[in-house]
């Protein structure tokens, strides 16, 4: 039950940034709901993969979540005749590893200001690599339907 | 009855004049898509589909980071045209509309003259400024909540990122370089969020600083970059990836300057 409450809370907290960033990208108002649904779905899906007994690494969980978002978006984009990035890009924004990126920059600055230190270097590398891998997984995951299923034909 | 030469798109062989006009139309469609942030494959695909369904035999295009070259061929006769592309800011509504025009032309619902006319009448959608400010503020506040921030921290993030977003919009309106814009916006966000750290508002006040600069995530350039790379447009992918990295770097410079100033003034 607590897990369900957690997922509901996460879904709401993921839908808000998805809609906010969709508005920043000037997605038409009637498609904002798709961004919200996909954003919430992707985030909850990823955290379920992270938490339930699977213990999947965060990069792989992000890849799966982004792939699912991309696949669902294929259906909606064919139905409403809109390009997929209209929905998918805003939907993965809640999963972007912002805190890892911020930590990387902070430890990089500390490394520069206070001189070389193994602990700091380790933090830079760990957080930086995590940021890169998660970002790569998210954006590759979105491209999967058009690379694997719709190989030489347009989706819409 | 419309007597414009564009109204007869399905003639077997096109006049030179008509071929020129079609190439111009296709170039404009590609330019519009690129200016509003479509990925390279979508630009290429949409332009080629529009050109071929309106009567060009073959359409080929070369896309570089800030210009496009289009050749339309009709029975061995080529017309080539180049367009410089200026960034007009992301606008997905424009991308949707242009793609819809292409699909309608493909289903013979529109001829070239009508496509051109509709293209002229397209107005980029703009949400009211304050709506975006509030929504982006809320977005960053939810990021702060996701990172485990308490209510005061989220409120602080909301204030900091709303102010930063308003600042970013006014810089954008004055056509400043995106690098300068990102740097100064990150500075503003970090400085305002730093107040939380000073007064020890809530648990983990440093979350506010991390969350309030997240309005600067270059999401579209990054995702377009990877999808260009994996779909074979390596040069465009590298250009976009580099642009996104530059934007992130500028934001990092703004953050580091704010941090230094905060230490200097004993704020945190």
Features:
heterodimer, A: 156 residues, mainly alpha, 6 helices, 79% helix, B: 268 residues, Pantoate--beta-alanine Ligase, Chain: A,domain 2, 2 domains, 3-stranded antiparallel β-sheet, 10 helices, 3 strands, 9% strand
Task: Please outline what is shown here.
With 156 residues, chain A is mainly alpha-helical.
- Average pLDDT metric of chain A: 92
Query: What number of structural domains do the residues of chain A give?
Result: 1
How many strands, what sense, and barrel or not for the largest sheet of chain A? none
Structural class of chain A, please? mainly alpha
Helix content of chain B: 55-70%
Succession of helices and strands of chain B? HHEEEHHHHHHHH
Alpha-beta classification of chain B: mainly alpha
Number of strands of chain A: 0
Q: Helical segment tally of chain A?
A: 6
Oligomer: heterodimer
Mean pLDDT of chain B, to the nearest integer, reads 90
**Total number of helices of chain B:** 10
* Proportion of beta-strand residues of chain B: 5-15%
What is the beta-strand fraction of chain A?
Answer: under 5%
Radius of gyration based on Cα positions of chain A: 17 Å
**Low-confidence residue ranges of chain B:** none
Low-confidence runs of chain A (pLDDT<50, min 5 residues)?
Answer: none
β-strand number of chain B: 3
